[in-house]
Amino acid sequence: MAAETPKIAVYSLPDLKNTTDDALPNYLTSIGFKQSQLLSNIRLALQSSMVAIAGVAFYLDYTKDWSETKDFTLWAVVAYFLLSAVVTGLVWLVENGMVFQGTFGDETLTLRTRTEKHDPTYYVSFSTTSSSSEPVTVSVPFSTFFTSDGHFVAPPFQTWLASHIPIIGTADPARAKLASQSVVESSGAEANSKGREDPAAASAKKRSRGARSG
To answer: How far apart are the first and last CA of the chain?
Structure first.
């Protein structure tokens, strides 16, 4: 039996988004995507350099006189703030909400996600290297794949991704087909319900016609 997913607060948009974001790479790598860690590695290297600079500056300040370390401390502070600015620019300008970047065959897929205030909807912007157009945004209510008590349910989320993002549907044709069948069945059921006359209404019409003929 599969382990039950952790329970979250269904009224917390950050919790809903973070849980869903975490599920994206797991699903995509399971169907053949190779995730790129380049930006994460660059950010980690920059942050590690900041920690190293701060550590060395603290050590020298603790073990030597100010007159011996003031020049190094000045350049260390400048370097620290420059690296901090680069990390901030990387997060806000380059990554900019990106939760996944990876390849499937010769295609590179980039996914960015967001939510809007007081709106329990998950917005996903996707782009591929073969597409010359602007990123496409699709959305889905969180209630599609979260239970009322706050548990994430993966299959509906995966089916939604496969049916709305073509390259994911190519990588997971079974879920894309399942989504198409669901749409067809839903359309057929709606058409049947419209074509089927309510028995009470039919009986009322029959009585009305009988009264007029009488």
So the answer is: 67
